[in-house]
Amino acid sequence: MADLDDLSAPPGIEIRPLETVDEVFAASDVLAEVWGGDCSGMPAGLLRALAHSGNYAVGLYDAGRIIGASVAFFAAPAERSMHSHVTGVLAEYRGHRLGRLLKQHQRQWAFARDVGHITWTFDPLIARNAHFNLVVLGARVTEYLPNQYGPMDDVINRGDESDRLMVSWALAAPAATTDPGDVVATVAVPPDIETMRQESPDEAMLWRRRVREQFAAHAASGLVVGGFDDARGYLFVPA
Question: Where is 4: in which H helix or E strand?
């Protein structure tokens, strides 16, 4: 968490609300580009409605050019939570800690509105996302969702099933940590499922089914995800 608190924007980089129709359409276009040309992920009309009704909708800019965006919406009032639906940065800007910068901004925005938790989903087979969500941010896995969104037609997900992990990020709590002595089971994931989907789709589907079955078996045994290790994968501990 301190890593996020101490993060500053690189020169020329800024995050600002999507306030005009032109900004909304530009954000929708850049998210479509991130997901391989799929314009259905965050249609401009829906994005405009979410932004105009007071939800979290921001663009990430480099010297005035939009290079990423993030959108979240509020949950039920009593939950003091919001759900982060989509966050994306153009490929040439990845690896520069801009995803962390967006999460820092989202966290500060949520705090200012008395939101205590942010939830989102991610593909359990993408190891770098598991590391970022569970190790860097310290979010906790709350649910495994088989084929959550049904068939998806973007380049990243096409031909696969849309299993997702739901995570919850307690914004004021210390990052979740795992005592090595508590780990009783692990679930491995491939280092680069996205390349595997393109080059060996049958092997990628075997990984999908294997991970889904192992998660279900560990949940039935009363285990929960306690963390993630780059070498071993998901770390399961007693609930």
Answer: helix 2-5
CA-closest candidate to residue 195, choices 125, 145, 133? 125
Of 197, 154, 116, 195, nearest to 32 by C-alpha is 154
Token pair, residue 89, equals 């940065």
Residues 54, 45: contact at Cβ < 8 Å?
no
* Residues whose CB falls within 8 Å of the CB of residue 113, separated by 6 or more in sequence, listed in order: none
Looking at residue 160, what DSSP letter applies? S
Bridge partners of 234, per DSSP, are 187, 228
pLDDT-based confidence at residue 1 (cuts at 50, 70, 90): very low
Model confidence band, residue 18 (pLDDT cutoffs 50, 70, 90)? very high
Higher pLDDT, 5 or 110: 110
| Residue 235: how many other CB atoms lie within 10 Å | 22
Per-residue model confidence (pLDDT) at position 224: 97
Rounded Cα distance between 239 and 226, Å, is: 9
Q: E strands of 75-195, at which residues?
A: 81-89, 117-122, 140-145, 164-170, 185-187
Mean pLDDT value across the chain = 91
- pTM, two decimal places: 0.90
